[in-house]
Amino acid sequence: MTLRMTLRSHRVLHCALLLFAASPTALQSQPGFPPDDPDSWRVAGTAKVLCSALFVSGRELSEARTNVSSYFLGAKLDSISKVEVDRERKLVRVSLANRITREAKWYGDQGCVIHQPGRDSVFFTPVRVTSTLPDAASTPWPMGDLMPSRSLDPGIDTLKLRRAVDAAFATPSSLTAGFVVVHKGVIVAERYANGAHRDMQLESWSMGKSITGTLIGILIQQGALRLEDPAPVPEWHKTPNDPRARIRLMDVMRMSSGLRMSRGSPEDLPGYHDHDLIY
Q1: pLDDT tens sequence for the chain (279 residues)
Q2: Strands 178-183 and 186-192
Q3: Exposure of 72 by Cβ count < 10 A (0-12 exposed, 13-18 middle, 19+ buried)?
Q4: At CA 103, angle to CA 106 and CA 198, rounded to 5?
Q5: Residues 6+ away with beta carbon under 8 Å from 257
Q6: Residue 208 DSSP SS3
Q7: Longest Cα pair distance anywhere in the chain, in angstroms?
Q8: Cβ atoms 55, 87 nearer than 8 A
């Protein structure tokens, strides 16, 4: 989604999915995969980011590599030995130190998805998302991009506003792609960098939480959901006595579903950060 789209809680959101399932089969499509190696998941995350940069955002490979975040690989980012791009299949394969190779592929409206080792496809059938929204260029903000032609609110300190925007881009290592300031429902400042532009779709990451919360709130207001109800996940209610059936919608919204995801316990896999476990 574009940065402006993240500010429109009623717009259709296209989110990249990360779907994984255990597979006992030997690796075929991603040679060099070692079992139980934390670096494997970090390489997978980097492959997904590069895949999204190329096939979701439309960046060039050289630019995408220059601006790729070190979040997953950290200091090992410089140890990437090969990046292969199959533009016909819309697939990106990343190798680390000629030792680990992982890949991610673009699946249309489902975005870029990491392939499970040993597979060259995903565990679901991609579906096309058809929007019924009007053209953004001719639709007034905030439902679209058409801005009112009026001067800034006289109460806005333009010097401080400019300094605030400058501060957002002051640290190059932060790789800030875009910054938008909204005041009383009107965009009063907007800037992009690192190859991004106003119409470029960008990964929302945790910005999606705010939008998801807004949409859930609307459904609750409409009477379609209740916070106290079990989370509407059919798979959690198929098996008798499945403990997940007790997870409520409010638990999921608080990210406290009761599913163990921690480090420090003897049974935890060594070398993994909490956040790595979802990959």
Answers
A1: 666 665 554 333 333 323 333 333 333 445 545 556 788 888 999 999 999 999 999 999 999 998 888 888 989 999 999 999 999 999 999 999 998 999 999 999 999 999 988 888 999 999 999 989 899 999 998 889 998 888 888 999 999 999 999 999 999 888 899 999 999 888 999 999 988 999 899 888 888 899 999 999 999 999 999 999 999 999 999 999 998 999 999 999 988 876 665 555 444 556 556 666 555
A2: antiparallel
A3: buried
A4: 45
A5: 231, 244, 247, 251
A6: helix
A7: 66
A8: no
Residue reference for tokens 């801005």: 147
Tokens matching residue 52: 């999204």
Identity at 114, one-letter amino acid code:
I
pTM: 0.75
> What is the token pair recorded at 254?
């608080």
Tokens of 77: 């980012």
